[in-house]
Design goal:
Structural class: alpha+beta
CATH superfamily of the largest domain: LON domain-like
CATH architecture of the largest domain: Roll
Strand content: 25-35%
Number of helices: 5
Oligomer: single chain
Shape: globular
Helix content: 25-40%
CATH topology of the largest domain: Archaeosine Trna-guanine Transglycosylase, Chain: A, domain 4
Radius of gyration: 19 Å
Low-confidence stretches: 1-21
Distance between the termini: 47 Å
């Protein structure tokens, strides 16, 4: 994306005007963005190896203030900044909070983040002098709690077996508690690990109905012989 002024009522970060609290419910003005070659889901675990100065400063600020940042999936460009390389990313993403941080080497942070609410960007993102992308974002509603249902139990059971197998290998890609009775949680965890294109993963993340999301996952697993009747 080309940095520059954005159309609409929200000003850029250079000389930014304050937004009246409560005027736009769910609005996160000038949310810092972290474009990545992955999709973060609500409730998901995101490990990051941070070494660019712009993101070291971002993570440090989040640790001090408890603020969150937005993870958006790259459509064009790379995660590491390169001069004159065009960057495009999806207009929706997932809010992230820093859970813990370790520095085993000077200038490099090992960070673990948790996915929170989904959001939609309002207007065009812009890149500030610090190299960070920012945009106003509106938070989306959390998934309503819905049971898996009898017709999708095989999908939840298969995920339970996958978690047990990974645990035997001392791998824990999912945050606890494991809510295998919740349709949205099961759909999100499968969507994180399935071998599917990034754009498809992003579409699954933004589906507002968790049961529909899980049905799509269930269909993929059946087509590939992971589960059966």
């Amino acid at each position: 994306m080309t940095p520059g002024d954005r159309p609409g009522p929200f000003p850029s970060d250079d000389g930014m005007a304050p937004t009246a609290p409560g005027l736009f419910p769910g609005l996160r003005p000038q949310l810092p963005l972290f474009p990545l070659g992955t999709v973060l889901f609500p409730g998901g675990l995101l490990p990051l190896r941070v070494f660019e100065v712009r993101y070291l400063d971002l993570i440090s600020a989040c640790l001090r203030s408890g603020e969150r940042f937005g993870v958006v999936a790259l459509v064009q460009g790379s995660e590491v900044r390169r001069d004159d390389e065009p960057v495009r990313f999806e207009p929706e993403g997932c809010l992230a909070e820093v859970m813990d941080c370790d520095s085993e080497q000077a200038g490099i942070l090992q960070v673990r983040c948790r996915g929170l609410e989904r959001f939609t960007l309002v207007g065009a993102p812009h890149q500030g002098h610090d190299g960070l992308w920012r945009a106003d974002a509106v938070l989306q509603a959390d998934d309503p709690a819905q049971p898996v249902g009898a017709e999708l139990q095989a999908c939840a059971a298969a995920l339970g077996r996958a978690i047990a197998t990974l645990a035997q290998r001392e791998q824990a890609p999912f945050l606890e508690p494991h809510r295998l009775d919740d349709a949205g949680w099961v759909a999100n965890r499968w969507s994180e690990i399935l071998p599917i294109p990034l754009a498809t993963r992003h579409k699954l993340m933004m589906l507002p109905d968790p049961v529909s999301r899980l049905r799509l996952v269930d269909g993929f697993l059946r087509r590939h012989g992971v589960i059966s009747d």
